[in-house]
Amino acid sequence: MRMNEKVARAGAEMPDWLCLSDHTSESNMDLYLAVDKEVEGAENVTLSGKFLSKAYEGSFENTGEWCRDFEAYARGKGLAVKKWYMWYTTCPACAEKYGKNYVVIVAEV
Fold this sequence. Notes:
109 residues; alpha+beta; five-stranded antiparallel sheet; 5 strands; 27% helix
């Protein structure tokens, strides 16, 4: 909520509500919101490089399976994952409401 408030105060937009999660430990993650301009009072960063992505559908409990599949997918393309990000396109409550839960793995390769 605090990040959303900063974005709104800055008059910025979040295209497609893209929010990448970088799981830094089992109990912590860094969040990266895509915005259309710099946001005052936030740590503004730019991600650059070569990225590969793949969408998955199902329960969050399948994350480990998805990650193994994604690594094989990247290897099949001759690529190695350097950094992982997850885009949770719906919250658990919304996934339950709509009956679908899409998660996109975005990786720097």
